[in-house]
Amino acid sequence: MSVLLQIKEDNSNLFDILDNYESIMEGFEDNLAIEGKSLERANVEHASWMSYYDQQRIEMRSLMKHYEHKIETVRSRLWVGYTETMSIALTTRDKDMYINREDAYLEAKEMFLLVEELYKKYESVVELFKQRGFALRNITNVRVAALEDVIL
Q1: I need a labelling partner for 54 at 20 to 30 A (CA). Which of 46, 119, 139, 150 fits?
Q2: What was the pLDDT predicted at 18?
Q3: What is the chain's Cα-based Rg?
Q4: So what's the pLDDT on residue 147?
């Protein structure tokens, strides 16, 4: 089920959702480690771990885009409100300043930043798994090259 379907209208469960994703990320270092594993085991498990964490990253990206859209929605609603109800003419910059201090906007922005932070952590983990893949390939190539000199 998509993470977007789990979000309540009032965002009351956002912290639970983020906690869940944080707990999934805990211990990724053990899955990333090569030491103490056979080359075969490390190569076999690599694709599944990378896919697993990349899937979480994709879900976090959807969540981040959702909250980015919420910011735009709040900003648009406030913009229209200031445009239609102010008795004095406001410049674009004036409206931006008023909007930037509105509680609804600040709350939406804070939620977005929390999700974005976790998304960037997942991006980092996925990048580490890509680097692990290169390291495994290099180690495999070195071992294969060393076997070429062995007489059978």
Answers
A1: 139
A2: 95
A3: 24
A4: 64
Which pLDDT value is given to residue 122?
Answer: 97
Query: How far apart are alpha carbons 108 and 74 in whole angstroms?
Result: 8
Residue with structure tokens 């379907």?
A: 5
Residue pLDDT, tens place only, 111-128: 999 999 999 999 999 999
The size of the chain, in residues, is: 152
End-to-end CA, the chain: 54
Burial class (CB in 10 A: 0-12, 13-18, 19+), 91: exposed
Q: What is the pLDDT of residues 81-97, one digit of tens each?
A: 988 887 788 888 999 99
d(CA 30, CA 67): 31
Asked if 125 and 53 count as a contact pair (C-beta separation under 8 A), the reply is yes
User: Do residues 14 and 111 lie in contact, with contact meaning Cβ atoms separated by under 8 Å?
Assistant: yes
